[in-house]
Design a protein that fits this description.
The structure holds two protein chains of two kinds. Chain A is α/β, with parallel strands linked by helices. Chain B has a single domain, classed as 2-Layer Sandwich (Transcription Regulator spoIIAA), CATH 3.30.750.24. A five-stranded mixed β-sheet of chain B has the order 1-2-3-4-5. The chains are: A alpha/beta, B alpha/beta. β1 of chain A pairs antiparallel with β1 of chain B, so a sheet runs across the interface.
Chain lengths: 282, 119
Amino acid sequence: MIADSLTSSEATATFAGPAIIVRSLRVNYGDREILHGIDFEVQAGETLVILGGSGSGKSTLLRALIGLEQPKSGEIWIRGKNFAAMTEDERDDLRKKMGMSFQSGALFGSMSVGDNVALPLREHTRLDDSTIEIVVRLKLDQVGLSGFETYVPAQLSGGMKKRAAIARAMAMDPEILFFDEPSAGLDPIIAAGIDDLILKLKKAFRMTIVVVTHELASAFLIADRMILLDKGTIVANDTPQELRQSQQPRVRQFLDRVPEPELSEEMDYLQMLTGEIPPRRR
Amino acid sequence: METSTRQSGNATIVDVTGDITLYNTPRLRKVILDLLKEDRSPRVVVNLQRVNYIDSAGVASLVEGLKISRDLKSGFALYGLSRTVREVLELTRLTRVFELYDTEEEALRGASSSPASAH
């Protein structure tokens, strides 16, 4: 009988409570407050979609969740631990259980696509090279990039870079996977393939998935729960069905794609142009 | 995860208990590859009845076992897949690549039947 001698940090038992808890989260850029006291939870195995227009704070929220933004106040609990109170070792352990697909791809330009995907496996595991090579091919196949292992990012289109970044985020089959605009800029067929992949990842690997997007069709397809952010506050936290039926004005405006109203008075417009009243953020 | 091996006719059965993950799969890989390359077992059958979860690295180890078995003209089969393990193999498009069986008896018998009859 062969038994593994894993350290507790390597144990992979799925966490039973909420995967993510956010309490009264405030994030500033300089003096400007972007998130004005956000509260929500993501259950383990749930797919949460964060919706919102440009400048709503959704990408800032995602960056805060993965520790790239320091909150001004409030708490972020990941798998039952307060992120702010963790030691650096605990944060490193946690990061092994989290994957992040950035909107820009954020691939290493000097490395091949295969090496980019292999990087987390080489850094955080003791897998043999031959095993890593197979995992890389599995992941690239899942994002439709079979045969592109030896390409460098400069040889890829924007959509291919994004898919390579998704493959890298999935390399370690993380418990929590974050996507920032996974299907933006992709053609409809590839975008549908990414939606399908997200659904399959959740089912097969029981992943908790957080997706920031403004692609409504994709959002309603993949979400178990949806948050609508508007100017740094949550205006809805519902199931897709509840959100569709919501009569909340900001929800309806977002879902029905109603543009912001024009300034009501020509004088308001003149005052805005001349600096007498502050510009209204759209 | 724990593994143990036993013999049944000309086949060696690898019983696996627990989740197969990127942290422990090197051990399973070594067991399988040693049976094929060192012991020259003519057929290796992996019992996954007590495995509730397998990740991509675990799948990769099984793929390596299958590859080596084909190189050496040995047999390699899996049986007793849980729903989640089967879903991972479906996601990775490997259900038609591996010889898969529901029971040990079928997996052992499969040695003399066509893989096409596998599930």
